[in-house]
Fold this protein.
Amino acid sequence: MSKGLKRLKKILHNEGLRFTSQREAVWNEIISSDDHREADEIYMAIRQKGISVSRATVYRTIDVLLKNNFVRKLDLGVGPSKFEHRIDSHHHDHIICIQCGRIDEFLVDQIEDLQDKVAKEYGFKLVRHIHQLFGLCENCQ
């Protein structure tokens, strides 16, 4: 059993939820892709694999994963939120096309350094941040 699956079992137990094959299927589907997907897309992908799972189980499982930092939620301002796993993923930020929904990941050291400098100037210790840029991609301009 993988380290991640062991952690998932522990987290579910701590949340008062049973570890089931359906919750394992949600977990496996999320970590199987680096894409940014809506909860319904995750649900449909599981169903297309012939696994019987309810939308409620998918949403509840995603909520638990989100609460325990296994998943990151991207609020795009319009439409449903998207999710990405955080397992073995490096820190990155997002640039999002407001027309087609394309999401690209980026990391710019100068931005990271500037955020640290601003936090220090204001007497903050950064714990986390969300940096999302919105615009029109080349194809939608």
